[in-house]
Amino acid sequence: MLENLLIGALSLVSLDALIAIVVGVAIGIAIGALPGLGPAPAVALLLPLSYYLPPTPALVLLGSVYLAAQYGGSITSITLGIPGEAQSAATIIDGYPITKKGQPGLALTISIIASTAGGLIGIIMLILLSEPLVVFALSFGPTQYFALGVFGLSIVSSLTGGSLSRGLLATALGLFIATIGIDPLVGFPRMTFGNVNLLSGIELVPALLGLFAVSEVFFSAESVITKKVIPAVAKGIQLPDGPTFRRILRPIIQSSGLGVLVGVIPGAGATIASFIAYNETKRFSARPEEFGNGSVEGLAAPEAANNASVGGALIPLLTLGIPGSATTAILLGALTIQGIRPGQDLFTSNAEIVYGLFVALLLANLVMLVFGLFGVKIWARVAGVKHALLMPIVFALSLLGAFSINNSWFDIQILIVFGVIGYVFKKTEIPIAATVIAFVLCPMIEMSFRRALMTSDSGILVFLSNPLSVVLLLLAVITLVYPILGAMLSGRRSSAKKAGSD
Amino acid sequence: MKITRERFTLAVSIFFFISACVLFFFTNTIRDIGGGPFYMASSFMPKVTLIGVAVAAMAIAVESVSNYKSRTEMEFPLGFITKMLLGMIIYAFSLPHLGYIITTFTFVVYGSWVMGEKRYVVCLLNSALFVAVGYAIFVVSLRVSVPAFWW
User: Which residues on chain A are in Cβ contact (under 8 Å) with B27?
Assistant: First the structure.
């Protein structure tokens, strides 16, 4: 492993890669700091650039943006008191009260320290766990990959969105959209309606840009007329004193571990990680009464967890090809664009790329610490930039990015249509993340399903012939059925109680 | 324009349900090789996913109807959305013909105005800055070809 890390580090000794780290972190913090834009739109906006860059700088750029945008969202939470993205919601609980006490610099400094520590721990866990998991995955065949894909989608459906039915709709829609085009096994067109442009399927980049970036442009049109905010201007960094630093140390380490564990679960991601970390830190804190009123532990915990979840989400992506979040689904798209397959191939034939990415992410955390500490005033001002000036630029960037891939007017139509779809999804609380993960995973799931059937004589029963496959499929069924049973049982209990009281 | 969330969600779910049914029953754009079980067919995955869409859409419709009395109102700025969509379509359509500089500059100014920025000098400067930076990144650094007018 150390040898591979050295090879990875050597692959970064180029101006391209180092510039990618610095630029990626700066862009990530800036975009993350803007209300409404988070890691997924940030990575989606830069995805078209990966067509024009070599593999290492392209992945390093996108990985750095991902990491930094996780931290950037906390700037909006702390200075504006509104969550930039869902994963920054837990930060407001104690971050904004610290700002209201007149200490925004302290809040932002604790936030960057916790984010950096969480990010470093997450990446170290990624490095330590990747190789054993890849070795374990060597035994996987099409049966196991199919079961794993179904299990991943079942978790995504049940954890994302306002309800199970919304999660299922989003997942099914993502799967259906991915089937449009030529059948990869047989070569016949599916759902193309005679349209030549649809033969190669729905292009990934315009669809992602539409769902994440263009939909946000429409969504921002509402905030123009519904609210105005005035940012608290940070007076600069305010380093925590010794006792404060000792107080935040344990929550940072504990929350980072939780963040990695939760980040591994597809669909769980940074939002759930940050809230679980907050609750657990409050439970074990010596001063729980401070939580909600500006507790430094309450601020550090979710920040460490949401950055640690980056490392966690990258584990299943790089080792098994299963994205742990919407942003890692976009990164899977970037790997596909570069012609790189996650899993064993990535760690053997492309070892310098993946270990280069690991080292780059470690460096990106340190660069983020420097930018976060010394750029506090700048990022606080960025958070207050008016949407009216920014959102047209976001659309123009999205359109240029979508157009530049194939110089195709059809891709622009896809961009706008998916923008409208994304907006409708946001209004109806249908999770876009589930659609994206399903869209990206569908080819792997379908191919594994059909290959497993073709190479076996037992037909559909082949999926019950392997213990791991059986366990994963059973867990998928339980994941989907449990919320429904739970709702039915609680409905019965409440009607029984009502009948009893009558 | 105000609309209740439940009504909007019901309309969207009915749309998805009807679309899934139409695509499932009335489109015949998938050609299958004869023989073999149905789950090996090319049409299997699209049809299974369409069933999933229809079932989930129906479940959401039922949820919306059962929550109808809660009447959560939400803002739906139809005027703004229409103006932005129109601007986007015109920008997209004119980009290949009029080139990157003119269309992007015009769209960013228009978009800022629609979204409520009334300081025209700020709009113009913001737009000019973006066009210049975008050109430097896409064309000069990355050598991406963007549409040009007559030059």
Answer: 191, 193
